[in-house]
Amino acid sequence: MAKQRFRDIKQGKKEAKSEKKQELTPIISSHYATSRLKIKAFLTDAFMLVMPIMYIVFYFIMEGREEFAQDKILGWMYILMPLVIIQTLFMYKTGQTPGYRNYRITLIDENTQQKPSILIILFRNLLAILSLFSVIGWILMFFRKDHKTLHDLLSATAVIIDDSKR
Questions:
Q1: pLDDT confidence band for 127 (50 / 70 / 90)
Q2: Does position 2 have pLDDT exceeding 70, yes or no?
Q3: What is the pLDDT of residue 7?
Q4: pLDDT, tens only, 37-60
Q5: What is the sign, positive or negative, of the torsion defined by CA atoms of 91, 82, 33, 137?
Q6: Label partner for 68 (CA 20 to 30 A): which of 39, 81, 94, 107?
């Protein structure tokens, strides 16, 4: 195939080659993870990730539940910060936490339909913790057809059913 010459293109003898951009296929609504799958994955992660962190904080860092009860804000910070970091690392590596992997769902960037960057994942996970306090962010998934939560909407991510793992 001959290389196009700029002079020929400029004089209108040939048309410039247009680069074909790869069109992203929109996510079909049946590929979004249902609220039921997301709740099951959340509960699995709660027992697999949160419980060990809570045990370490209660008995090694705070030296007992009584001390945790005296300073709950600091105790929850000790629990939630490692949780956000661990979930971010899991999602950055594979797009899945242990609960997501168990129920064959994965996190994607809605714009690129690929695994999100680490900053987007970190932003999403921090928003998820803040959504726990407002509750509205989590309830939103029951009223939307795509089952997105507030932190999914703000971070432009989606949780989809991963057909490749079946």
A1: very high
A2: no
A3: 67
A4: 999 999 999 999 999 999 999 999
A5: negative
A6: 39
